[in-house]
Design goal:
The protein is mainly β. Helices cover about 5% and strands about 60% of the residues. β18 and β19 form a beta hairpin.
Length: about 725
Amino acid sequence: MRVARQFCVAALLAVAVPGTLAAQTTTLAANAQNDETEPALLVADSVFVEDSSRLIASGNVEALHDGLRLTATRILFDQDKGTLTIEGPIRITDETGNLLLADAAEMNEGLRDGLLKGARMVMDDQLQLASVEAQRVGGRYTQLSRVAVTSCQVCGRNEVPLWQIRADRVIHDEEERQLWFEGAQLRVLDVPVFWWPQLRLPDPSLKRARGFLTPTIRSTSLLGTGIRVPYFIPMGDHQDITLTPYVSPETRTLEVRYRRAFSNGTIELNGAVTRDTLVPDATRGYLFAEGEFGLTGGFTLEFDIQSVSDDSYFNEYDYGPSERLESSVTLTRARRDDFLQADITHFETLRASEENDTQPSNVVNAEYEKRFFPDRIGGELRLGTALHSHYRYSDVDIDEDGDGVVDGRDVSRLTAEASWRRTWTLSGGIRAGVEGYLWADRYAVAQDSTSDSNAAQLTPAAAVELRWPLIRRDSIGGRTLLEPVAQLGWIGGDRPNVASDESTRVEFDEANLLSLSRYPASDRRERGRLAAAGLRWLHEAPGGWTASMTVGRVWRAEPDEDLSRSSGLDGDSSDWLIAGGFANPLGLSITARGLLDEDAQFDKAEARASWANDRVDLGATYVMLVEDPLEDRDESQAEWGFEGSYRVNTNWTTSAEWRYDLADRRLDRTGLGLQYRNECVQVEFSVIRKFASATNLEPSTDFGLTVALTGFGTAGSDKEYRRTCN
């Protein structure tokens, strides 16, 4: 009804011009009463003044003012009575698309009070409010009597909407952007379902309104059938809190989410407190806290805190990760020629097979690197330093639990690094490069009878690299790149008697084919002479599809006993690295990587395929790892995974997920989902089956059901799903 008031102001400005007479498609414009009010424009077939105080416009009346447009059959302004009468059908629209329809309207001169008969409001091009009459009160409130409210498309006069709210009275508060219902009744296909003596809902223009959000029904084999009912509480425009009671026969849980925005950052807290029958007489719960802040000097501070009451809580309630918690505080600054980062991290394992006392639970890292471009020697010079320390709660200096790791080993490491690299372009387009390194490491080891308590190493390294990029363009616009690459390198120094805690997992891929050391951390470096060679192929077709392939291998003078079989780098020659990819404009994408040994068997393989378009979103993954004692894997592992969704039509969407353990020949997880959505309702149903695993000792089945009535500020509509009338 804000629209009605603004229009009436415009109409009054247009017609209240004493002594003016116009007829036969005459246009009237009136000057604004003050400098801040734009002139209004009135167009009608006939405009005339009666008795010097009544102005009448009739026939295809159209008024424009400040983004508002009104159409009516007849407008009458009585200057003596101070009343404005509009005969319909009346149609008023504003610049946002809000629409007001009425059969007739009478407003006072001040336009703060008035009556509209046969009124119908359409908010945000979605929510419809139909009433017998609407009354304007105090310039702020619009009162509608005998109201039907829905966001569903209604095509015929006698058609029943999928849902509607019937009410004796509805009051719209323009300032607060709230709808107040009295005697409200929810009807589904015109069948009464719920009744409220009073009900408050936000209008569609309010995106952060206090009130209930979409409830969710969840049923699991462990917790039974329960319901979640979120309640959203805004606290100004910069913070809010959401409280979600979750009640089932087996649990009483309160979920909490708190968000706050600052001028220089944000924080978010998520948590829950639980009393249930699974762990009687105990209070369970979790807390996650994360945030990011921009500090002076270009620094960024980030934190991520994770805590849970017991190891099985996340599996049973599906709130967070099921294997490991990671809490950290990180300070970072990245500039053009230098980088600084420091972080403190606490790890907590949730695996039944691991003990937190024997895991490196507390970790400190700090690193700084700066680069220079010296004129005399050319190239790029980098200087850096790094600090690492990790601590175990155990004080046992031997391997008592038999996992191959000393139970209480604590390690600190300080590293200084200097490197220089330069490249040249030779005849024939060959790219040549040289690089040199010097690392200095100092170690302090405690509670480990197998390692030196103090150790140091100085490691020089150098390499020569050659690349020959060959590019060909075909007659139809395609481009092909064929690039042979080769490297000869040397890493000096001797490996100190220090256990490997940081470099237990080594990856060999396209990114580090020409690296001098492929260990992820400085507690281990490759040694001696080595060579690497590879071939890279890339094709870009004029039709938009691309394909790539990389093949490579590494040779070394002496094998490295700390490199595992599944790394592909054990022995004096590595496995063949084979990697490739394909993508086309139709949404198909395939990537794959494998390490092929001398017997033509894969020691490691992974692949990902996906296909996405307007109707289909499919993805499949495959992972295979061989048995490897150095990586604490006593048997080979392989897994298939699949997830996807298919949009059957505009309204219906199906989804599925599936994960199969090939090594154990059993399902790990499977799920199905079904969604229906139109312009006024969204229904989602899902079922997920979790089978027993190392972290999930008891199988469970979860059912989920969500029903949302869209069109209000808390559950806005999507016009993409709107039906059309024939």
